[in-house]
Amino acid sequence: MEGTQTEGLDDLPPSAKLVFKVLEYNGPLTQKGIVQESMLSARTVRYALERLEGIDIVDEDVYFADARQNLYKLTEPAQEFTGDECDASCTAD
């Protein structure tokens, strides 16, 4: 079930959007960490991560503390969805 080029974050189910936000706010997490933070089922998180990886918003890495788990983090293209493109002129006084 591969994502298409035109599919974006807006086209994803709410669970995938929630997983995206959890990763945005908390940084890289294991699947277990995402389940705990989002309060979604493990199966739902797996499906959401699959969809996010399909459109290159999430990367999967080895979690060196426990090689049985993977570490999930947002990719560089995901930055366009986070609103982090603010430069020095956006800082609060």
TrEMBL record:
InterPro entries: WH-like_DNA-bd_sf (IPR036388), WH_DNA-bd_sf (IPR036390)
Protein species of origin: Halorubrum saccharovorum
Protein's name in the database: ArsR family transcriptional regulator
Gene3D superfamilies the UniProt entry points to: Winged helix-like DNA-binding domain superfamily/Winged helix DNA-binding domain
